[in-house]
Amino acid sequence: MLLVLTGNAKGKTTSAIGTAIRTLGHNQKVLIIQFIKESESGEITFLKKLANPNLKLHICGKGFYKIKGDHSTKEDHKKSAQEGIKKLKEELSSFSPALVILDEINNACSLGLIDPTEIIDIITKYKQTNFILTGRNAPKEFIEKSDLITEMKEIKHPFNQGQTAQKGLDF
Amino acid sequence: MLLVLTGNAKGKTTSAIGTAIRTLGHNQKVLIIQFIKESESGEITFLKKLANPNLKLHICGKGFYKIKGDHSTKEDHKKSAQEGIKKLKEELSSFSPALVILDEINNACSLGLIDPTEIIDIITKYKQTNFILTGRNAPKEFIEKSDLITEMKEIKHPFNQGQTAQKGLDF
Lengths: 171, 171
What we know:
Two copies of one chain form a homodimer.
Chain A: E1 2-6, H1 12-25, E2 30-35, H2 42-50, E3 55-60, H3 74-94, E4 99-103, H4 105-110, H5 116-125, E5 130-134, H6 140-145, E6 148-156
């Protein structure tokens, strides 16, 4: 099953993490690979500390690409993303997760760091595995192949009212 | 901060649970009260087993109301929901959570089991606490009071293609 969580609103990564927790609750294995993001959000700190043998986690981002303060080259970003794909292939073959979360992969594709057809080929090979792909701007290849798409749609957001990101809620 | 997660698509409860994990990652306290739902989903099993002192969890539902197989009266459902509100008030006062998740409370309000103004009064009293209210059909009182609303919008769903709910993904 291929699930795509996209849209401009809050809730994509947290929903994926919640589904990871749900899956772990059934003693099924979960693999999380985080693209783009480099810094450790609260959920990553928490999941690492769990040291649950049913959970594997790889952070393969170099920080947000092409934003203020990004000193990495496109090649650096691509290299990190390719490291993530390498980990994905290895873990699918050796760890055999029931659920794979590729966090921010939609962004990584739309930024040209990953070729979506490479991901589709992997997903097609592992039909029994559930995949959740998160991030804005999901590529058309994911949209077409997906079984489920939820668009997180922003109706109201405090950042638009001058609020800044808050620990626990936003990171 | 008041966050409302609504809409007809998958991702509301899982996003709330993911935010709980994020908040726990910062060693902040989380209270989860689940309305409507009675049975234990994977995430509840998992969270209970954690036995994390920063997390409190109360299941105050009698199962989905007015659906096939529901043998409870409206009074039974109301009683469970009121039990949830009692727990909410007690925990806000004694446990002092940083984040409160009221899962399926939007539904509980729209079904007439809870008066939304009672919830608004509580939220107004605890300005320093973050609240996440989930469920379809968020009442207008929550919409107006909220700082953030994400609508989980269904673009594609496998149930529409004859698939049934799947352990780990859907419960």
